[in-house]
Amino acid sequence: xxxxxxLLLAIVAATASIGLVVAPVAAAASPARGALDSAVRVPNxxxxxxxxxxxxxxxxxxxxxxxxxVNGAGHVRRAAEPRPDVNAALGVPGDHGFAATxxxxxxxxxxxxxxxxxxxAGNTLLRCQFVSGGRYDPAQGALDSVTVSPxxxxxxxxxxxxxxxxxxxxxxxxxxxxxxxxxxxxREPRPDVNAAxxxxxxxxxxxxxxxxxxxxxxxxxxxxxxxSGNTLLGCRTVEGAASLxxxxxxxxxxxxxxxxxxxxxxxxxxxxxxxxxxxxxxISVNGEWFTGEAADPRPDVNAVLGVRGDHGFAYDVPLRAxxxxxxAVAVxxxxxxxxxLGCRTVHGPGSAPAQGVxxxxxxxxxxxxxxxxxxxxxxxxxxxxxxxxxxVNGVGHARTAGQPRPDVNAVLGVPGDHGFxxxxxxxLRTAQVCVLAISTTGQANTVIGCREV
Length: 453
What we know:
Immunoglobulin-like; 28 strands; mainly beta; 48% strand; signal; single chain
């Protein structure tokens, strides 16, 4: 090292002796410097005060700029406030402090501050800091009115809703009717709200929604879109339209025609919510539906129910070969529930088994005989009488069902005599009596009942 130093001194001396001048080497320019001392929110407003200092070491006597970024939005300020502590520590003249007020938003804000070089030597990020802009207040508003429509089927809900303290920030409303929710906006003009809070914007709402029959609880919430809290504006209990009664009626009969191609479906149907008016009846045959009006006179129904109007029906429906399921439904025209009146199984053309009913089997006083009564017919030849076979403990007796049964004719809509009233012998022990309806057209016979006597 000593040799190197001596060599350098010798070189300098030599150059001086021959008249050469060595130029001084310029110092490298330094970037701006400084410090972010604090970033503090101003109470009750959406602003923050940013303090610190900044200078350009290449022009230490001059004030320089600071650039402040709040969530990426820039603000230019000058660092020109007195900071004697900085002057003393760095041995520089001039004013280099800053205390800048900048806007911030609600929630968390990122504040970054740069010292700017006035000589182009390079800017410097002093620091970034998070500043809370405070919590949003919960949504606010009022439920002004809950009005039921004249028919009781709808309700109109009116009021206002907003998100303070943001100007023009509306809060949607959630309306619940018996627990069923509806989301609706609040964007109608409300100059009274504007005047009361000194804010612009539209905050009103007025929405019409359906009501259930009977009692309804209507509740309205103002909804915060920034998660600061929803607010219940109020609940009201209102009465909707009276609860609607289901349709009523009866399926009196399903009478097969003599050739089995159609069946006459008869009965009555009534809408209790409009008892003076005729209503509809839906009839299905094997799942295919037909609709008609129950508008035939039924004075018996009027007398029993104390209603006016015509409520009877009798409709012919087509049958297919084989088994047919025929059903009827009373329809409510006023919006109540429809009511199934029942179903019947009817056989189509040329395929119906014999049918009938065993009404009674009565043993004589001396126990030596039994009298059986009932009716049978062959639906494929309904006008003709048919045979009936009576079995007593397996012993058969053939008889004819040829006695008048006007009740059967009326219900089934068939001609002819189909009743039987037959006495056959039995022994003195307990007997099992079974009766079969016999088809005259070669279709299936039917056991219409058994009795133990």
